[in-house]
From TrEMBL:
Transmembrane segments annotated in the record for this chain: none
Top EC class of this enzyme: oxidoreductase
Pfam families noted in UniProt: ADH_N, ADH_zinc_N
EC number, as in UniProt: 1.6.5.5
InterPro entries (alphabetical): ADH-like_C (IPR013149), ADH-like_N (IPR013154), ER (IPR020843), GroES-like_sf (IPR011032), NAD(P)-bd_dom_sf (IPR036291)
Identification of the protein by name: NADPH2:quinone reductase
GO MF annotation terms: quinone reductase (NADPH) activity
Family matches, as Gene3D superfamilies: Medium-chain alcohol dehydrogenases, catalytic domain (3.90.180.10), NAD(P)-binding Rossmann-like Domain (3.40.50.720)
Keywords recorded for this protein, A-Z: NADP, Oxidoreductase
Length: 326
């Protein structure tokens, strides 16, 4: 089968298209014939060596396609069925991938209208948006919410979902004014601001109170800049580290400043609470199918995968890139 692979970590140039043997499903697993494979920022982080991964590796954490074979003990799925899947061990940028049955959802019933390209573009981030806002942020109607990296694929969905869940104010922040405006144009955000303008505008926007919820996927210095923007008893939700630079926070600071530090990690939740991951995945895909969550999708070919990685890594990405596999 055809697959994207890297044998060493590094820049987008380490990605190559190769022929590999088809993977076989083990117990509790499903083999999927992939039609569409979403390129995700996690593919970039693992490819550049930010986290350990066994090499050689095939990227790809979110796919759509049809069930090719069922592993031992799998029930409730059938060969030929259209599905979306999140192969948590990666491998999705290939003609066939193996995913856990619990992370494979039929595109039938209320998900029948979901286009495979859209499912492949949003499976991870729609799940994360639900888990982050409902699970970690415990969002309630009337909350004032700040989302960092607002123009990215996840940020767009977070803004839309915060609005749908009744937030009173949803502010999107990005590295440039142009990206902040792009976030607002995607729907969901009341205002878009460059990071450098946040401290100046937060008192006016929040009536002096600060944000009840700050969603922080960037890390680095920005983590320290957004922490003081929280309202008393606000929730600072850490869900990523795009800057590849963490910030050390003294636990006493949580006490002194009366705020909640929370987090959501999709892989961690899936490993320890697969039922909860499944619930977030199903709800996320339902919200995409019914139009509550909307994502601009750009289909690309095999030779464009490295370009898509470069665009995401250089903060020039727009929309969600989906490899058209067959
Ligand atoms: N916790 C989880 O389970 C989970 C799940 C999915 C995604 N995430 C994380 O959420 C973040 C957003 O994911 P996404 O799918 O929206 O990715 P994306 O579309 O590529 O967006 C990434 C955003 O991060 C910002 N960014 C800040 N520093 C960056 C840097 N040094 N390099 C590249 N981008 C940088 C960029 O916006 P600006 O230039 O405007 O800052 C960019 O829009 C990622 O960090 C990802 O790892 C976490």
């Amino acid at each position: 089968m055809r697959a994207v692979r890297y044998t060493r970590t590094g820049g987008p140039e380490v990605l190559e298209t190769v022929e590999l043997p088809e993977p076989q499903p083990g117990p509790g697993e499903v083999a999927v014939d992939v039609t569409h494979a979403g390129v995700h920022f996690a593919d970039v982080m693992f490819r550049r060596g930010q986290f350990p991964i066994d090499l050689p590796a095939v990227p790809g954490l979110q796919v759509a396609g049809t069930v090719a074979a069922l592993g031992e003990g799998v029930t409730g799925l059938r060969v030929g069925q259209p599905v979306a899947a999140v192969p948590l061990g990666f491998g999705g940028h290939a003609e066939r991938v193996v995913a856990g049955a619990l992370t494979t959802v039929p595109l039938e019933g209320e998900l029948a209208a979901l286009a495979p390209a859209t499912a492949a573009a949003t499976a991870v981030n729609a799940t994360t948006a639900v888990g982050t806002l409902r699970g970690a942020a415990r969002i309630t109607a009337g909350d004032r919410v700040l989302v960092t990296a607002a123009s990215g694929a996840l940020g767009t969905l977070l803004g839309q979902l915060a609005r749908a869940l009744g937030a009173a104010l949803v502010v999107g922040a990005a590295s440039t004014l142009e990206r902040a405006e792009r976030a607002v144009a995607a729907g969901g955000f009341d205002h878009g601001l460059p990071y450098g303008e946040l401290a100046r505008h937060t008192p006016d926007l929040t009536g002096g109170a600060g944000f009840d919820v700050v969603i922080d996927s960037v890390g680095g210095d920005l983590r320290g800049q957004v922490a003081p923007l929280l309202a008393v008893l606000g929730r600072h939700v850490v869900i990523g580290n795009a800057a590849d630079h963490d910030l050390t926070l003294a636990a006493n600071q949580v006490w002194y400043d009366s705020f909640t530090l929370a987090g959501y990690n999709l892989g961690g939740v899936a490993a320890r609470r697969p039922d909860l991951f499944r619930a977030h995945l199903e709800e996320g895909l339902r919200l995409v199918a019914d139009g509550t969550l909307r994502q601009e999708v750009e289909e690309i070919g095999w030779s464009d995968v490295a370009r898509a990685h470069a665009l995401l890594e250089e903060r020039r990405g727009s929309g969600a890139y989906v490899l058209r596999v067959r």
